[in-house]
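Subject: for your reference before the review

Hello V.,

The reviewers asked for a structural picture of the protein, and I figured it would be easier to keep everything in one thread rather than splitting it across files. Below is the amino acid sequence we used in the manuscript, unchanged from the supplementary table.
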Amino acid sequence: MSIKKGSWKDSNWYVSLTGFWREYKKHRIGVLGLLVIVMFFGMAIGAPLLATHNPSPGVKVAPPFLAPAWVQVFDSGAIRNGEYLPDPNLDRGTTTSHLQIYGSDTYGNESSFSGYYHQATSADDLNYMALQWNHHAGDRPSFRFPWPSESETEMPMTEDFVYFTQTLDWPYERMPKDVNVSFAFSTHFTGDFATHEEAGLMFKVYVWLIDSSGNWKMIYKTSPPYYDYPITRVADLNWFDIVAGWRGMVKNSTSGTQEDPEDKLTLAVGLAPYKNFFYYNGHWVYREWSGSVEVRVSRLSVYVYGGYFGYLGTTDKGGDAYSQLIYGSRVSLTIGLLATALSTAVGVIVGMVAGYFGGKTDEILMRIVDFLLVIPGLPLMMVLAAFLGPTIENIIVVIAILGWTSTSRLIRSQVLAEKNKAYVESARAIGASDTYIIFRHILPNVTPILFANITLGVVGAILSEAGLSFLGLTDPNVPSWGRMLADARASGGFSNGAWWVVVFPGLMITLLSLAFTFVGHTLDQVLNPRLRER
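And here is what came back from the structure prediction:
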């Protein structure tokens, strides 16, 4: 006759777990805290999918201190971030009509300029505008170049060059906060230019802004090395460049007029010889080369930033506050849980040893605890963090060093109450070892109060990490909520009205700390028999 085994639902662990959950869900505040913690765990695990930009605090993705994008619904004249050049990929056949030669060949110069538009013929091909400079041996462009020591201003050092233009319309009555002009190009050499390494020093590729009055503002010029495959160069315009290009399209606040009523801005990309001469034996010598340079521009982009960006704006360094906030949950949870686990393990061992053995062992261990409790916690953590270094591992150790003292006192008091009970005396009578009695009999009886203490310890670890980050004692390259607050304070975010770099990190710290506090309070009520009876 076989005995039928009970199902797994009849096992002790399942009955205990379901009974615990039945009691726990009666406390709404505990359920709320648990849901918030689950939300933060989901945020930390899914950070690579949720983040929209690079979360590193030092990576700039937009101008500093831009407000969240959703705030612009209250600003009727807000500038929308985006690409404002109608044809960044140069895919219109009419692009060839913009090709022009600056100056004229009136000095008998053998150098010549030309260009053409290439239309892609296959999926792997690119549309591009080709700018060519052909140089011949014996060419003496002395009339084309100013005195060699004269530096460039807004125009190249040569009086003749080839360029093409693209025009954009500006639909706003404000100037942008920041503008990035990028262009992709490849370079191809023939003749002597292909065999001499210094060929890249004989020319430059330029980018200009041309306003309605015909004024040219140079915003970028290239330098070697050059490649025969497309590379992208980016010009991050400064305030003077933006004023020079966009001021004419914005009404004067005093007179109510504007220089350019058509609201158009022209960009030009040009190829010009730079220096085909060198200094030798006290005089300038021109290179006796024959060959050509062809620059193929396949993309010309103008990305404009208004006063708003992303879900939560930007930080003091132009980083994405939303992405840093998402990844900051990883740091807070990692440090909070691991530091609490380490401090709890140390506190439990010290407390159980001191309470069980008593005597000199108890006296020595408790005096160490008293010493650590007397020392101010934050100053000691600052010293240890500065001494050990700002890595996450060291911060966990620093927080754990001061986090185990309260746990050890709590466990010691419970062990003192348990070690003289009958079940402990019975275990001693049958010859059980001290280690077996401590971990097999006493530890399970002090565990209920330990769970609540662990959850509250996580709160202390999270706040300690935020405090150390705020004081600049953590890794500046690791995004964390405390680091965001520290950067906002150091860069004037408080005084500049950048509320989003202060409110959201502080809100995350508060929510996560409250969630663990709610769970800890509920665990104490469920697992502590005395509180459950009230």
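For the response letter, the relevant points are probably these. The domain at 82-305 is CATH 2.60.120.260 (Jelly Rolls). DSSP finds 14 helices and 13 strands in the chain.

Happy to draft the paragraph if you're swamped.

O.
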